[in-house]
């Protein structure tokens, strides 16, 4: 079936089954590989994107559940005020080690700042709790989120 989807402000059409996860539409059909596959069960956060401005796990979000909601991926997050500030803070504080989880981390952090521009540590911990970093850079992630709000 053909689905119309707006990704990063661009209208696209994809011919996939309705139960196809958004992750695979982005990566395999649209060749947008910034969004990562981690666990496939919405437990690690590596596949986080925004649907209608909300952080969602694209590995369990089916294409037919999106409707006409806009999708934003890591490829476009730097064009937003919060995304750009977060990317710079990530670099300044050397948050990244292996980097695999970072697109999901940045997407969750950007959604947090969009809803809570001056988050507390508790706000950050709650918003980021579903994002796993196997390298354990959680302290630097929290510090970078705070820096991005300054």
Strand content: 15-25%
Provide a count of the helices: 6
* Poorly predicted runs of 5 or more residues: none
Order of helices and strands: EEHEEEHHHHH
Q: Give the overall average pLDDT.
A: 97
In order across it, which strands form the biggest sheet? 2-1-5-3-4
Task: Briefly characterize the structure.
This protein has 150 residues and is α+β, with helices and mostly antiparallel strands. It has six helices and five strands; from the N terminus they run ββαβββααααα.
Describe this structure in words.
- Strands 2-1-5-3-4 form a 5-stranded mixed sheet, with helices on both faces.
- It has helices at residues 22-29, 74-77, 81-92, 102-115, 121-128, 138-148, and strands spanning 2-7, 10-15, 48-51, 54-57, 70-72.
- Strand 1 and strand 2 form a beta hairpin.
- It is globular.
- Helices cover 38% and strands 15% of the residues.
- Helix 3 crosses helix 6 (138-148) and helix 4 crosses helix 5 (121-128).
- 39% of the residues are buried.
- The model has no long low-confidence stretch (mean pLDDT 97).
- It has 150 residues and is α+β, with helices and mostly antiparallel strands.
- The chain contains 6 helices and 5 strands, in the order E-E-H-E-E-E-H-H-H-H-H.
